[in-house]
Design brief:
Distance between the termini: 157 Å
Shape: elongated
Number of strands: 9
Number of helices: 25
Largest sheet: 5 strands, antiparallel
Oligomer: single chain
Helix content: 55-70%
């Protein structure tokens, strides 16, 4: 039996159903596409509106003019919620640090400061709105706690003490949500230190690790240092949390000076120098690495920083010497620190002490700018450049004044070393009369006499030196140069220390720095006791003793006596 063919009508109905299904499918897709597009448009419109809201917020709070970079970043953030939170965060930061107002005109700055509390209320509202939709947003929790604390603190609201949980809870939550972030801990440290008297001993103990970590941030430490000094039970406990950073110790040093707490000043000065010594060594290592890597600009910046930051004394000489050797050709720093190091080096050179190498002095001379002729000529001698020193000398019309005495002494030593005895003698003849009996001049005369080979002359000068040697010196022997009192000693015998009487001490006391031959011998308080005792070995021979007030009012030194044998035994004075 032959198979039955489908009818034409049946085939037509099948095709029609397929077409209808296809049309329906395409229609559904089109409708879905339109819906998605509508949702996208709606989302875009919503985002646009929220971005407008962020921009409006920036304009209303004035943040766009005070902190343009922060404002730009917040306005361009693709997430408007995060942008609003950035605005709130910046408003909170301003409430703790007024530096953003410094660039404003005076009237605008006053108005901006007056509006801080209102902006803190706004920051809290933004944080609360954010937490409602994003409960795990640690920044929102931090802003909520920080703004509440700051607002209550500024208003003197007792709730800052009674209802600690209201601000402390959000800050602790922020720290838990972001354990790698330090910012919540900094707010906690500031707040805890303000309410420190109300904390129990256990709460204080628990707070110390957080405070220690927060203090690693220089700005936080600067903000909290005064509070911490007042809160700590004693100085040793306070110092346990201080970061081992020279800037931190310098900050404390200034605070102790303002309080006239001279013992604290001396301890912090010592800790500052210890920290600075390590920091300068690290900078030198990095400068060497950069130089070897071809970064000459970076190496120069680090080397210049060493010369600028190093206190002018023997302890830091090696660091400065190394920095000058590493520094690529060109100026080696600001003129003022360069000139201080140059003056220190020349001062020793005039007395026969080589404090810096001639190459290092030459670098300093090249960077010191225009110096007075007498100082420039002496500096050229210390740099090993006699010819250039004589050029400066010849161009000057009054090389016989007192200011030129150090140059002639140094030149006589140089010429004697070159066995030019006659020229050396002529140089000494030009030393100003006020210097002719000074120890450096007599020492230079001995060097010249030895260069001539005149045994009788050597014996005569040596006899004169012996008459100058002593174990005590009257107050009238001090010479002042600016704020520094100088005394050239010729020590008759090895001593175990010296005692310096203090003829003038301010009623509030002061801190005195004593250096011997360019090295700090003591930084000590000067108070009710009118005598300063230094236990430092002093070999027989010439030395330069200097006394300078480091903090407080002016101190005037008086008689100086060597301590020989057992400590406390005074030497015999000169006739």
């Amino acid at each position: 039996m032959a198979p039955t063919r489908p009818s034409r009508e049946a085939g037509t109905h099948g095709v029609t159903r397929q077409r209808v299904a296809g049309l329906l499918l395409r229609g559904a897709v089109a409708v879905a596409a339109v819906a998605v597009a509508a949702l996208g448009v709606q989302h875009a419109l919503t985002l646009h509106a929220r971005h407008r809201d962020v921009s409006k917020l920036l304009a209303e709070t004035g943040l766009a003019s005070r902190q343009p970079e922060v404002a730009r970043s917040a306005a361009m953030d693709p997430d408007p919620v995060r942008g609003r939170l950035a605005v709130a965060r910046a408003l909170l930061a301003e409430a703790f640090d007024y530096s953003a107002f410094a660039a404003l005109p005076p009237r605008e700055a006053v108005e901006a400061v007056a509006g801080i509390n209102d902006r803190l209320d706004l920051a809290r509202s933004i944080a609360a709105e954010t937490l409602a939709v994003r409960p795990s947003a640690w920044q929102a929790a931090m802003i909520m706690g920080g703004a509440t604390y700051r607002l209550w603190s500024a208003r003197g609201d007792p709730r800052v003490f009674r209802n600690r949980v209201v601000w402390e809870g959000p800050l602790l939550a922020a720290a838990r949500l972001a354990p790698g972030e330090d910012e919540p801990l900094r707010f906690l440290a500031v707040a805890w230190l303000e309410v420190w008297p109300t904390l129990t001993l256990a709460e204080r103990s628990d707070a110390l690790p957080t405070i220690r970590r927060a203090f690693q941030d220089p700005a936080t430490f600067a903000r909290c240092a005064e509070l911490w000094l007042s809160a700590a039970p004693d100085r040793a406990s306070a110092f346990e949390l201080v970061p081992d950073d020279s800037r931190a110790w310098s900050l404390l040093e200034g605070m102790y000076a303002a309080r006239a707490e001279w013992d604290g000043f001396c301890v912090t000065r010592k800790r500052r120098d210890q920290a600075l010594e390590g920091e300068l060594r690290q900078r030198l290592v990095e400068a060497g690495e950069r130089l070897r890597g071809g970064d000459r600009s970076g190496a120069r910046s680090l080397a210049v920083g060493v010369v600028t930051a190093a206190p002018v004394e023997l302890r830091f000489r090696d660091s400065v010497e190394a920095a000058l050797a590493l520094c690529p050709p060109g100026p080696v720093g600001a003129q003022e620190p360069v000139r201080r190091w140059l003056a220190w080096a020349v001062e020793g050179y005039v007395r026969g002490q080589r404090r810096l190498s001639s190459a290092a002095v030459a670098r300093l001379v090249a960077s010191a700018g225009e110096l007075p002729a007498s100082e420039a000529a002496a500096a050229e001698l210390a740099a090993g450049n006699l010819a250039q020193a004589e050029v400066v000398e010849r161009r000057n019309e009054s090389p016989g004044t007192e200011a030129w005495a150090p140059y002639w002494i140094a030149k006589a030593r140089v010429l004697a070393g070159q066995h030019h005895a006659a020229e050396a003698t002529a140089a000494l003849a030009r030393v100003h009369r006020s210097w002719r009996a000074a120890v450096p001049v007599v020492e230079a005369r001995l060097a010249v006499a030895r260069a001539t080979g005149d045994a009788a002359g050597v014996a005569a000068v040596q006899s004169e030196l012996n008459s100058l040697a002593a174990a005590s010196w009257p107050a009238t022997d001090w010479q002042w140069r600016g704020p520094v009192a100088r005394l050239d000693l010729l020590v008759s015998a090895d001593a175990s220390g010296l005692a310096v009487s203090l003829d003038v001490v301010p009623p509030a006391g002061a801190v005195v720095g004593v250096t011997l031959d360019g090295a700090t011998a003591a930084v000590a308080p000067a108070g009710g006791e009118a005598m300063l005792h230094l236990a430092t070995r002093i070999p027989r021979g010439p030395h330069l003793l200097e006394v300078e007030t480091r903090a407080g009012g002016r101190v005037v030194p008086g008689q100086v006596e060597l301590m020989t044998g057992e400590w406390g035994t005074k030497g015999k004075g000169k006739d």
